[in-house]
């Protein structure tokens, strides 16, 4: 049975695929129109830029959920389990703080963007800030859920440096 997070992930993947398809069609169509007919789609660049910003942040959210962001776990891998766990807790708290700053800044930019319009289509520039705001909330919830698992001692917790993490096994205590 699929959980809510899994369903939201599937919806996000479909939205990202649709946005990428629209971007490709708009940019390709614009290139063909410019070179073949000396015209173009005026809004293509603006729509593509907005979709690209959303793609980046939605992709970052999915990458975080699957622990696919770049990380250097060389030091943590050499630590005993309790020290790795403590480092993970500190790292998660720092990530939550950074995400809070990002959410707060995005919210301020979102409010400012409600008063500012895009050049061609005249949509609120808040759409750009929203691309950071909503995914940052999703990332904070993801980090918070893993922090809860770490503190609760759940076997599903992702602790950097765990030698068995690549194979999906439970953390090894030393």
From TrEMBL:
Topological type in the membrane: Multi-pass membrane protein
Localization terms from the record: Cell inner membrane
Listed GO MF terms: transmembrane transporter activity
UniProt keyword list: Cell inner membrane, Cell membrane, Membrane, Transmembrane, Transmembrane helix, Transport
Membrane spanning residue stretches: 12-35, 86-103, 123-148
Limits of the Tripartite ATP-independent periplasmic transporters DctQ component domain: 23-152
UniProt main location, coarse: membrane
Gene Ontology cellular component terms for the protein in this record: plasma membrane
Tagged with keyword Electron transport: no
One of the Pfam families matching this protein, by short name: DctQ
GO biological process: C4-dicarboxylate transport
The protein's role, per its UniProt record: Part of the tripartite ATP-independent periplasmic (TRAP) transport system.
Protein family according to the UniProt entry: Belongs to the TRAP transporter small permease family.
Subunit annotation: The complex comprises the extracytoplasmic solute receptor protein and the two transmembrane proteins.
Protein name as it appears in the record: TRAP transporter small permease protein
Organism: Azospirillum griseum
